[in-house]
Amino acid sequence: MSGLVTAITTGITAFSATNIDDIVILTLLFSQINKSFRSRHIVAGQYLGFAALIAASLPGFFGGLIIPQSWIRLLGFMPIIIGMSSLLKREEDSPEEASEETERSYPSVIASFLSPQTCNVAAIAFANGSDNISVYVPLFANSELESLLVIVSVFFSLVGVWCYAAYKFTYLPAIAQFLTDNGNTFVPCILVGLGVFIVSENVTWTLLSVVSSYLFSFILSKTQNSAIRIQESE
User: Fold this and answer.
1) Which residues have C-beta within 8 Å of that of residue 19, sequence separation ≥ 6?
2) At residue 107, does pLDDT exceed 70?
3) CA distance from start to end of the chain
4) CA nearest neighbour of 152 among 122, 181, 169, 132
5) CB of 75 within 8 A of CB of 126?
6) What per-residue string of b and e applies to 39-69 under the rule 16 or more CB within 10 Å gives b?
7) What's the pLDDT score for residue 3?
């Protein structure tokens, strides 16, 4: 019994310590839900990305490694690409459109797991959690099979808790108002910064990338507004 309690405690501690930043990323992602990007994509993608992290860490239990850390860091380019793409083609979906999509669209679980949106979220989750592998590998290596199964079960249970908590955070008045007013710009900038940090692990470059992408978005927005005014005046 004490072994079970120890395994559960270890699982909770290890997951919380290595995934606290995922709450922020998940909250930002849930704030971007629209007619083509749904909650199911985020949850499925988070589970898929985390499952890949566990798979990459399991060799620690068997005494080997599959994926070199340098290869995993290259996935940091995925959030950079997604963030820049979002900045270049920001589209706002009305609540009515999202509601209509919710009412008439009931895709299968398999379709959700295979969708591009899910794969994007999975790539972000895997890249953002690449450092987790350095913690999970020795943790798994020092665990017996029974403890390993308990720890992994705790991990996957907490992924759901993390997703639910992040979803609820978007409904807090202060957070919801901030994300509503600035989400379309703020989220892509954070994704760019996240990607830069994953690739370089340099805080200075990360901050510069966030500021630069925000300035780029601001200039782009002003240019688009000016073009619209000119067209309206004509």
Assistant:
1) 129, 132, 158, 162
2) no
3) 78
4) 132
5) yes
6) ebbbbbbbbbbbbbbbebbbbbbeeeeebee
7) 76
| Model confidence pLDDT, tens digit, residues 64-105 | 445 565 665 676 687 788 778 877 765 444 444 434 444 444
Q: Which of 148, 130, 155 is nearest to 67 (CA)?
A: 130
Question: How open is the CA angle 76-30-16, to the nearest 5 degrees?
Answer: 65
Residues whose CB is less than 8 angstroms from the CB of residue 110 and which lie 6 or more positions away in sequence, other chains included = none
- Count of residues making up the chain: 234
Residue with tokens 């620690």: 60
Q: Using alpha carbons only, how large is the chain's radius of gyration in Å?
A: 20
Q: How many CA atoms lie within 13 A of 234 on its CB side?
A: 6
Structure tokens at 225: 């507004």
Query: If you write DSSP's letter for every residue of 75-137 in order, what string do you get?
Result: GGHHHHHHHHHHHHT-----HHHHHHHHHH----HHHHHHSHHHHHHHHHHHHHTTTHHHHHH
Q: Quickly list H helices, the chain.
A: 2-30, 39-57, 59-62, 69-73, 77-88, 95-104, 109-114, 116-128, 132-141, 145-169, 173-200, 203-233
